[in-house]
Design a protein that fits this description.
The chain is α+β, with helices and mostly antiparallel strands. Helix content is 37%, strand content 19%.
């Protein structure tokens, strides 16, 4: 539970809901194993994603993860059960079926996997996220000869470390931090 704008919001799925998500994820993977006649590696399913994404597939070394956003699942459980799970399993399958290739995240291969799953191949959800906790990236003010720029934390840190210098696209002068 968390208070957001004075309202208490429950940010947990019930045990049954979590188990349903896990079972549906494994069911979609099993469907692909049959279709492609290939055993997929084990995958860790987590419920720790925050922000605007409903789900996320990632790989670290030889371990695979699918992370789900509890707040979005809580509000739109049925829709996520039908679309988000297949979407993320699709990314996992592409990684397993086409290893060591640099493919577009929602390219032809991913769309093919989505067709095998019989799932919608739309890229983003259209959920109303008002009132849900959002992760906001801090922005840093920089200026050039003609205007002020707002840079991401990542770009700011690269400049501070002396690894890169950014230039204005309009006037061509270098960006300098505003104290």
């Amino acid at each position: 539970m968390r208070k957001i704008n004075g309202t208490t919001v429950i940010l947990e799925l019930s045990f049954n809901q979590e188990e349903l998500v896990r079972a549906k994820t494994l069911q979609e993977i099993a469907k692909l194993e049959l279709a492609y006649k290939k055993k997929f590696p084990d995958i860790e399913i987590r419920f720790d994603l925050k922000g605007r994404a409903a789900g996320q597939f990632s790989q670290r070394r030889k371990k695979y993860f699918i992370r789900y956003n509890v707040a979005i699942f809580k509000r739109y459980f049925k829709q996520n059960l039908d679309s988000t799970i297949a979407h993320e399993v699709g990314h996992f399958a592409v990684q397993v079926l086409y290893p060591r290739r640099r493919l577009k995240p929602h390219g032809i291969e991913w769309r093919e996997v989505m067709a095998v799953l019989g799932a919608d191949d739309s890229v983003c959800h259209q959920f109303d996220l008002a009132g849900l906790p959002q992760r906001k990236e801090r922005r840093f003010s920089y200026h050039c000869a003609c205007q002020e720029h707002q840079l991401s934390c990542r770009k700011h840190n690269k400049i501070q470390a002396g690894k890169v210098q950014y230039f204005c696209r309009l006037c061509g002068s270098s960006l300098r931090a505003i104290p």
